[in-house]
């Protein structure tokens, strides 16, 4: 695809889809005090060009009204897709995304908010595939979103074509992310595959798998913050792990943890 032909999805098609209809059942806001109705597209028989084939049901959730409506119109033009709703994230109702197969979710610009929303959706509608878009592209944020349960991850500079391709990719069971983020995922899995001692040693010390993973990093002298970044954890979670490890193996400090583990057969 030539660069000249790519369009940013934020400004895709300001015209109205002739086949669209609006529902006044739920109001939405663009964040500037303007309230407008929720937009629903392609409400009709769920069929495609193939007789009897069901359409892919997509729900669009974004705070920015222009982005939300642009994405809904763009996807609504595709014969094989039914956009069941376009709503602001704050107003999105569970019954809407639970009826969808894919939730196209715009980042709120705050990792904690994004993770809270992802986890909420995963707990209430585990079958819905979440495609998170408009993200900054930070490796640590990406890995935490993957751990929370997203199936796709689109950066802020993604084009309209990128969005369509990502939706189709998730539809066929693929995980979607930029190449650089894919490399970060491979590195993360490599770290996760750290060699562990025998089952006998594990049983004797009583350490969990995560606690065992921390031992080589403690031996390297990494700080709690650096360890937290390696495993996409909070710094407080790492502190809690270290406290429990000291209690389990009778060590007084970080150095004591390393020394005890070495004598018990950990290869550090």
Q: Tags for this entry?
A:
alpha/beta; 7 strands; 5-stranded parallel beta sheet; 16% strand; 268 residues; Rossmann fold; two-stranded antiparallel sheet
Describe the fold and architecture:
With 268 residues, the chain is α/β, with parallel strands linked by helices. The protein has two domains: 3-185, Response regulator (Rossmann fold, 3-Layer(aba) Sandwich), CATH 3.40.50; 194-263, Orthogonal Bundle (Arc Repressor Mutant, subunit A). Helix content is 44%, strand content 16%. It has helices at 65-76, 94-98, 111-124, 139-148, 160-171, 179-192, 199-205, 209-220, 224-231, 235-249, 254-263, and strands at residues 21-29, 35-40, 56-61, 81-87, 102-106, 129-135, 152-155. Strand 3, helix 1 and strand 4 (81-87) form a beta-alpha-beta unit. The chain is elongated, with a radius of gyration of 23 Å.
Write the topology of this structure.
Elements: E1 21-29, E2 35-40, E3 56-61, H1 65-76, E4 81-87, H2 94-98, E5 102-106, H3 111-124, E6 129-135, H4 139-148, E7 152-155, H5 160-171, H6 179-192, H7 199-205, H8 209-220, H9 224-231, H10 235-249, H11 254-263
Parallel strand pairs: 3-4, 3-5, 5-6, 6-7
Antiparallel strand pairs: 1-2
Helix pairs in contact: 3-4, 8-11, 9-10, 10-11
């Amino acid at each position: 695809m030539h660069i000249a032909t790519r369009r940013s999805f934020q400004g895709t098609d300001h015209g109205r889809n002739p086949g669209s209809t609006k529902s006044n059942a739920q109001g939405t806001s663009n964040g500037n005090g303007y309230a407008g109705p929720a937009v629903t597209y392609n409400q009709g028989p769920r069929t495609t060009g193939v007789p009897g084939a069901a359409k892919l049901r997509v729900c669009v959730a974004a705070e920015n009204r222009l982005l939300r409506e642009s994405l809904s119109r763009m996807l609504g033009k595709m014969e094989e897709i039914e956009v069941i709703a376009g709503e602001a994230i704050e107003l999105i109702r569970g019954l809407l995304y639970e009826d969808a197969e894919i939730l196209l979710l715009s980042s709120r610009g705050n990792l904690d908010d994004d993770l809270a929303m992802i986890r909420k959706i995963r707990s209430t509608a585990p079958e819905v595939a979440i495609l998170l878009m408009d993200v900054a592209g930070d490796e640590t944020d990406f890995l935490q979103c993957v751990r929370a349960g997203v199936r796709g991850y689109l950066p802020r500079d993604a084009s309209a074509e990128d969005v369509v391709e990502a939706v189709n990719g998730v539809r066929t069971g693929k995980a979607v992310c930029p190449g650089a983020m894919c490399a970060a995922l491979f590195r993360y899995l490599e770290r996760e595959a750290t060699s562990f001692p025998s089952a006998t040693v594990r049983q004797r010390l009583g350490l969990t798998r995560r606690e065992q993973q921390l031992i080589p990093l403690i031996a390297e002298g990494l700080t709690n913050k650096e360890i937290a970044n390696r495993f996409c954890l909070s710094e407080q979670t790492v502190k809690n792990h270290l406290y429990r490890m000291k209690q389990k193996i009778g060590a007084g400090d970080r150095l004591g943890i390393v020394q005890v583990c070495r004598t018990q057969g950990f290869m550090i």
